[in-house]
Amino acid sequence: MTPSEKFVFELCEKSFLPFWSFASPLGKKNKELCDVLVVCENTIIIISIKDIKVSEHPDENIQYERWQKKAIEGSIDQIYGAERFLKTVNEITLSDKITKIKLPEFSKREIFRIAVAFGKKDNYPLDNGNFGNGFVHVFDEQSTFTVLKELDTITDFVAYLKAKEDFLANKIVSVPREVDFLALYLSTSLKFDFEPDSVLLDNGIWEEYLKTDEYAYWQREIPQSFVWDEIVSHLHKIHIIEKGNTEMMSDLERATRIMAIESRMNRIELGMIFRDAIKKKLRGRIIKPFNGSDHSYVIMPLSSKNWDNKEKELELRCLISRKENPTATKVIGISMGEDPQKKLLFDIVYLDIETLNEEILEKIENAKQELGYFTNTIITRSRDMRN
Description:
This protein is an alpha/beta fold and 387 residues long. The chain has helices spanning 3-20, 60-86, 141-150, 154-168, 178-188, 205-209, 213-221, 226-241, 251-261, 264-279, 310-324, 358-369, and strands spanning 21-23, 36-40, 43-51, 91-93, 100-102, 110-118, 129-130, 135-139, 172-174, 198-200, 285-287, 295-301, 330-338, 344-352, 377-380, 383-386.
C-alpha cells in the first residue's frame, strides 16, 4: 500500500477491527478491486484513495481541473467499477489470493461509496453527490481522520453516511469542508423543525462546535465506554488473532462481532453497567436489549465464591436472560476477574436459541429456585438490573 492507503486502512482497522476492514481485495481477473473494502453484516463500504500532487501549471484553474480528474474522477470510476463487480459475486478474495470473505445476500446489501482525495490545496472544493451510479462521499485527509475519530464504531460511522445521503437528496448544499457538515450532524442529527431546500454552511463551524458545552460533555462521557472497547479488543486478541482463526466462525468470534457493533452511546451505558456491577460485587446482572436489538448481555464478576463453577453459572444465567428477554434470541455472557495468580481473566458465553424447549425451561427454573440466580430486581439508571 502507498502511505495514504496505509493511513486510511489503519484508521478503518482501528475503528472497525480486522473483522470488517480489508485492504486491496481482488476483483475481476484478480486485479485490485478497491483500496479498502468494509463488509459488516449487510453493509458494504467501498473506499478508493488517490494521492495526487497538484501540477505546476501556472494557471490555477488548470491545476484544479487536472487534480480533480485524477483524484476525484479516478476514484469515482474505481468505486463504480468495484460495485459492478460486487453485483456479480457472492464472495471476494483478499490480497493474499487465498482468504475468501462472504458477502451479504444481494437483496439485503446496503452499499456506501467513499472517495478519499489526498494532495489538494486548501481552497479546492470537494463535491459530494450522485455522479451517475450512486452517491459518493468525497473526503480529504483532515475529514477522513476526523470523521473516523469522532465516529469510531461501525454503527456510528454508517449512521452518519446514511443520514448524510438522505439529507442531501434533492437539496442545494454548499459546505466548505466535510468536518463542517460533521459538526452540523453531531449538533442536530440533521433533524429540523422544517425541511430546508438548501443548506449553506460557513467555514469554521467544526472549530466552533469543538468549543461548545455539548461537545465538552460528550468528551467527559466517552471515557466510560473505554472498558467495553478494552473487553472487545482483549477478546479479539486472545480468541481470534492469537489462535489464528482465519475462518472466524467460532461462537467467541460471533460474540465479539456483536459486541463490536455496539454504538459509542451504547458502549457508554455498557461500560457504566460493567463497572457498577464490579464495584458493588454483584453476583450477576442482566442488560436488556438496546433499541429492539436481538441480543442481551449478562455480566458476572468473578470471586472466590463462584470461581470453581464459573462457566456453568455464567451459562445458566445466560439461559435465564434468554427467557426474560423473549425478543433477544442471542445472549452474550461475560465474566471477569483475577485468577489465583492475579492474572486478569475473561470468560465468555454465547447462546443463540430460537426456541426454548421444555428441557431448557426446566433447567432455567431450577437455576432460579435452587441456586437463587436472578431472583431479585434492582432498577439502576434507565435499565432493569437483576442480581
